[in-house]
Write a structure and sequence with these properties.
The chain has an 8-stranded mixed beta sheet. The protein has a 7-stranded mixed beta sheet with strand order 11-10-9-12-13-15-14. With 366 residues, it is α/β, with parallel strands linked by helices. The protein is 32% helix and 19% strand. A hairpin with a 2-residue loop joins β14 and β15. It is globular, with a radius of gyration of 22 Å. It is built from 12 helices and 19 strands. α1 runs parallel beside α2, α6 packs parallel to α7 and α6 packs antiparallel against α11. The chain has 2 domains: 156 residues, 3-Layer(aba) Sandwich (Rossmann fold), CATH 3.40.50; 184 residues, Rossmann fold (3-Layer(aba) Sandwich), CATH 3.40.50.
Length: 366
Amino acid sequence: MKIGIINEKTDNRVAIVPDLVKRLIDEGNEIFAEEGCGESALYSDETYLSAGAKMLDRADVLKSSDLICSIFPLEKEDYKLLPNEAVVISSFQPYFSLDKTESAANKNFTVFSLDMIPRITLAQAMDVLSSMASIAGYKAVITAANHLPKYFPMLTTAAGSIPPAKVLVMGAGVAGLQAVATAKRLGAVVQAFDTRAAAKEEVESLGAKFVEVEGAADDKSAGGYAVEQTEEYKQKQREKIFEEAVKADVIVTTAQLRGKPAPVLITKEMVDQMKEGSVIVDIASSTGGNCELTEDGKTVVKSGVTIIGNSELAADVPNHASQLFSKNIHNFAKTFLKEGKAEIDMENEILKSSCIVSNGEVVYGN
């Protein structure tokens, strides 16, 4: 199998790192890498060459590859260069960007979207959402600390004592738990909220307080996502969140609903009542945001509160993020790459769930 690696035009990460290049070649594949594809993640062209890759320009990589791997979907023009029956692996987010899926539906391409891999035990080693969420949770707290005009830890000095920062984490999935752990390491007093009852034990095991609102619908089959709640619960939730939000110095929001806009947890009224200088980092910004005032990809100040909308915080740690992404790619590819050939079995639950285009036809939603 001829596998291509391209330079991400809007991201510092790279889909396949040199260590994985060597492993893929040992498994019977040939690797073509676009010149400069790993430089932003601190992987030089020399390291790719040493691993056995052939360095080409973008057009030649696309023309030469039977399988192309990328973090973000290819451009429309890129698809024209791929060979007929090529396999494409990327993250298309078809729930929100069906146009990108339709752009890939030509020739006889088979397209897999990594964000559609089912969140089951068998697929844990392929779960790019969890890998990137873990980094995002860590980076969210570091980003908040950079913007907060206060210390995180409690300090007792000859000049007086400084109380610790109060951090509230909304959503205790992979990103939220990493945010909790990071904030605790920095010495903050941490609370976390989640509608899933199972999250309480995990939050408390990290030394944080779990903010509980009784009466939540807890869907264990939601694959790690939050689920829609009743209006009665939402009202109780708003009241409890308001009570905790106005006392917080930092709020990190991570709650996502699969296939739907992110739930609004922090309203404009809550922001208006928060302490001046407080910081909100909204990891769910790409799907609408958990804060009503979030602007995706932007940092804004409202009522003295800094609101950072960024769903791609993992890209700020490109070296390690690329390593993890590569391992996820490799584990996924092993489900259909056999001795350098693609043997795609659509009865396989993982492949069936993540395939969004089959032989040039859109199958997402069918």
